[in-house]
Specification:
Rna Polymerase Sigma Factor, Chain: A, 2 strands, flat, two-stranded antiparallel sheet, mainly alpha, 2 domains, Arc Repressor Mutant, subunit A
Amino acid sequence: MPFANKPIKPGYPDDDKLLDDYRKTGDIAVIGKLFERYMSLLYGVCLKYLSDEEIAKDAVMGIFEELIIKAKTHEVKQFRGWLYVLARNYCLMQLRNGKKFDKITLDEVMENTVFLHPDERVDESYLKIMEKCMEKLPAKQRQSVDLFYLKEKSYKEIAETTGYVLNDVKSYIQNGKRNLKICIEKNSD
């Protein structure tokens, strides 16, 4: 499986053009060209989370299968960033579903946050604590955090879905993360 970077050559369509073409035609070869550009990035993300080369390669192919479906329906403003989030969430679901039991640091789970101390580990008991703490969040925070992190919705999509004001959505997510962190720390002792 070639995981080398595939730079965009002059004269080749950009990400937005390929994505638009795929949505119009449904041609898997078109989305395949776009996917090929980011295979090395995806492999790196999967290897980081799953810590096994073969499992990471399988995950990259699983992500492609999801991409075929989700690229048609999700609002994508920046393909590379959206694909990264798709890959991260795919790997987290693999971990959550017990397909890989190695422990990973929480910094690897939560993108660019210092949710917990980097030396702490995530395991099945941690995920149970996280689920219980999610249930304890106020409804608006819980719903916003769930839609943002687990359902991959943008702030705008969350605001449209829930009827909340955009700035409130941002606040609910920020406060929800903070409250979740506090709850997890209290229950991890």
